[in-house]
Amino acid sequence: MGASLCAPKKKKTQVGASWVGNESENPFDATLNKKDRTLLRETWQRLDDPKDIVGHIFLDIVNDVEPDLKKVFGVDRAPRAAMLKMPKFGGHILRFYEFMEQLTSMLGTSENLTGAWQLVRKTGRSHVKQGFLEQNQNQMEKNYFEIVINVFIERLIPFLTGEQVRVMDRSRSDDIIVHLQIEIKN
Ligand code: HEM
To answer: What's the domain of life for this entry (predicted)?
Structure first.
């Protein structure tokens, strides 16, 4: 009998509607160490007003990167300045922000890795119901989830380095983002 057949069976527990395997199957446990997870949380917390920054990045995504997403979020007829106030678009920004807040807190503060993984799986499952995402993925091989995540990875960095900052502009309905020229002194 091979060693693998003698190995103890991995225990699975049912949480909510899905089966969650043991910790070794959890990518947050398998691919990140405690320091990585703490760093993720601390990095997220370093953002000055993350909800606002998430909103601005989503504005760029639907206006400049993937305008096809406008319709899904109900902003296809709205001018850019009014989009943040539209219920579906504004609601998604809030949910995205809350998702990041909860996820990074579970990873870096409470160390609830099972909860973190469940949250990601639950969110993934709820998006399968979005016919738009599935159709594009299957027929056009266009993964909007991946596109959104990559834009966020790229666009959050200048806010962390201080290259981009939010500036309140009372004459406009929203804040403006200012690009700073950073001088590196030796
Ligand atoms: C990393 C990328 C994304 C994250 C983290 C995210 C997160 C969330 C969360 C937390 C919710 C609310 C709870 C839930 O239904 O699970 C939600 C709902 C929703 N998401 Fe996303 N989302 C992402 C990308 C997208 C994309 C690319 C689309 C484009 C179709 C989309 C469309 C929707 C829609 C239509 C809802 C339904 C609720 C509503 O009307 O706001 N999401 N999303």
So the answer is: Eukaryota
Tell me the per-residue pLDDT of 47-81, one tens digit each, with 9 for 90 and over.
999 999 999 999 999 999 999 999 999 999 999 99
Structural domain includes residue 128: yes
What pTM did the predictor assign? 0.83
Distance 95 CA to ligand 1 centre (A): 7
Of 163, 7, 3, 36, nearest to 111 by C-alpha is 36
Q: Is 126 in the pocket of ligand 1 (CB under 6 A)?
A: yes
Tokens matching residue 116:
């973190």
Counted domains in the chain = 1
| Per-residue pLDDT tens over the stretch 17-50 | 555 555 458 999 999 999 999 999 999 999 999 9
Which amino acid, residue 122?
A: K
